[in-house]
Amino acid sequence: MRFFAASLLLVLPLCAQDKGGRRPPGPPTNLKVLKVATGPEVIQIMRTYTAALGVKCDHCHVQGNFASDDNPKKEIARHMIAMSTNINTNFLDGKVHVTCFTCHRGDVEPKLAPEAKPAAPPGL
Q1: Are 53 and 108 in contact (CB under 8 A)?
Q2: Does residue 1 form part of some domain?
Q3: pLDDT tens across 76-112, in order?
Q4: In a domain, 30, yes or no
Q5: Distance separating alpha carbons of residues 13 and 9, to the nearest angstrom
């Protein structure tokens, strides 16, 4: 029992750092639009993009080589990031008003019109 407890104390910190068998990210490479300094910042931003578009990383990236520009969707994403950044710089309050989710709402294709609300039941 002591051996189990001791080995658990040695393994848990490694698991906490390893996050499912992946190494912690190194410094970001091949950033052309994003203005960030660390890997964790890039990962957090990428998570918001995947949620906003309802996709996984390999939608824009080459699996296993995220710095690669071989996927043409990555260049489209860069244009969209630049567009939303440009729109947001036109607001004088310095807040982020437009994000990917503003138009995409969880889909790869942007929504061109708001979704119709269901009709109210008769008699209300």
Answers
A1: yes
A2: no
A3: 999 999 999 999 999 999 999 999 999 999 999 998 8
A4: no
A5: 7
Distance CA 105, CA 103 (A): 6
Q: Which residues, at least 6 apart from 103, have a Cβ–Cβ distance to it below 8 Å?
A: 110, 111
Beta strands in 1-124 (DSSP E): none
CA distance 83 to 64: 27
Domain membership flag for residue 81? yes
Dump pLDDT digits (tens) for 1-23: 454 444 434 433 444 444 444 55
Token pair recorded at residue 4: 């189990």
Q: How much is the pLDDT for 77? A: 96
CA distance 57 to 71: 11
Q: How far apart, in whole angstroms, are the C-alpha atoms of residue 64 and residue 70? A: 12
Task: Note the pTM of the prediction, 2 decimals.
Answer: 0.70
β-bridge partners, 62: 65
